[in-house]
Amino acid sequence: MVYEVYLRSFADSNGDGIGDIGGLRARLPYLRDLGVDALWITPWYPSPMADGGYDVRDYCDIDPCFGTLADADALIAEAHELGLRLIIDLVPNHTSEQHPWFTAALAAGPGAPERDRYFFRDGRAGGAEPPNDWISAFGGSAWSRCSGPDGEPEQWYLHTFAPQQPDLDWADPGVQADFDAILRFWLDRGVDGLRVDAAPAMAKTPGLPDAGHAPGALFESTSWVDNPHWDVEAVHDVLRRWRAIGDEYDGERIFVTEAVVNGPERLSRYVRPDEMHTTFNFDYLRSAWDAGSLRTVIDATLTALAPVGAPATWVLSSHDETRHVTRFGRADTAAATMGFDVAAGSADLALGLRRARAATLLTLALPGGAYLYQGEELGLPEVEDLPEDALQDPTWERSGHAARGRDGCRVPLPWSGQKPPFGFTAEGVRPWLPQPGDWAGLTVEVQQRDPDSALSLYRSALRLRRSLAALHEAPLTWLRSEPEVLAFARGRSFTCVANLGARPVALPVAGRVVLTSGPCPGHLPPDTAAWVVAGDPPDDLPHGVPAPVQRTAGSLGG
């Protein structure tokens, strides 16, 4: 289990309202006790923060708002002492517009070798229109025009994301060599792995042909086929190069890709034996709360990954997506395209939390690894009423204020107390994003005393997950069930049952219920999941796990 730390919103140690490395160091025992194995930290590099740190000015330093390189070294050492591994974010598709490489390219002018690191092109229609029809993930054109020293417009440059994030040209040998050095810089400091941001964007079709995007098209990369600026085959040459570097180091160094592509088969290409180790599973994250949809994604994922021998990963929320407590409480429970969640109508948060708890047990019972986004273990909902003047996600402006973007899932965590800032920062300090005043019942302080809380459920599930051998070794076998029930075995000793339907169902015949996502009075209620083990359960049942209950014979819906 990997825990995603969105550093700005995790914990603040110096009272400036922004989460930092010191805050994370102080909370490492919390993460150890939660039961996670590793941390993934979002970008901590020097950055103007035009896109939350994903616009990097220097890949070999720490932004002063987060701390220093010495703080990072101390964090790595302390995490290792607690048995936690540490993965950092690598942002290789683009830099900040303030990176020295880009400022030098602007200053050098058209035709200069400094511009070879990026995509500078002449415009069409005499230079007045973009070089092609490519679109940005944040809305609008993927091209912006720069000006010369005299202020006159000249070439255009490519940015798959915000204009402040110019794309690097990975065909350039200088880019390749510099990133080799960046990887070694961090691996030499002891990080256990890197998460590769926006990996499919790193290669472009030579000649930069039109993609055929319709006016106003969204960045729906899960439906694209043979797109010239996304999931181009040459990206795998870069990934193989990096894997070879990682394999030079003693111990296990892991590479994880963010690859939002068209289906599990395309995704599996990123985790071939000589490429990355694992990759995020966005089809699972964005699936509706529907048994048929989820089973289809699970089956397709396991089938596609089997030939390449890579483990699956499962994730329910992230810093880019609407928190699933809110999503599962809506009429439409599927996730929208990143940053463009414009779902109408309010969410039933009680229903969403019930489903989210069931989804937790379902997810943690699947073969492979899982990612937990900070605050997920507290059952936090999306903050949908942030004041407009507080919004910082570039999606808000790029969409013409049509989509509020991702700030709602990035609100700082509530640790303790009865009112904001809930222990996130010093009393009286305003966090960088405002917290809801009604989060007092969701703090870590409150939930760790409540055996029925979301936090207690996660702690129980993660401890059981470690202790049950079947969840480490055995393959998944589906069991006969009603259409709205997901029931599967892991070997002969473990069964997971999740009822996504509207009426209660009977529990499996043999075994003992060791964990349920909610009250389970004889039958499994709607939107509830259960873990059942054959024979005697582990002797060291974690705090919050109900005493084993022997169930009578029956079937899942007959």
Please describe the structure with a list of short key phrases separated by commas or semicolons.
alpha/beta; 17 strands; 558 residues; eight-stranded parallel β-sheet; TIM Barrel; single chain; Immunoglobulin-like
Structure commentary:
By secondary structure, the protein is of the alpha/beta class. The protein folds into three domains: 364 residues, Alpha-Beta Barrel (TIM Barrel); 59 residues, Oligo-1,6-glucosidase, Domain 2 (Oligo-1,6-glucosidase, domain 2); 76 residues, Immunoglobulin-like (Sandwich), CATH 2.60.40. Helices cover 24% and strands 13% of the residues. The protein has 15 helices and 17 strands. The strands form three sheets. An eight-stranded parallel beta sheet has the order 9-8-7-3-2-1-11-10. The protein has a six-stranded antiparallel beta sheet with strand order 12-13-14-16-15-17. It has a three-stranded antiparallel beta sheet with strand order 4-6-5, with no helix packed on it. Strand 12 and strand 13 form a beta hairpin. The longest helix is centred in the first third of the chain and has 16 residues. It is globular. The two termini are 35 Å apart.
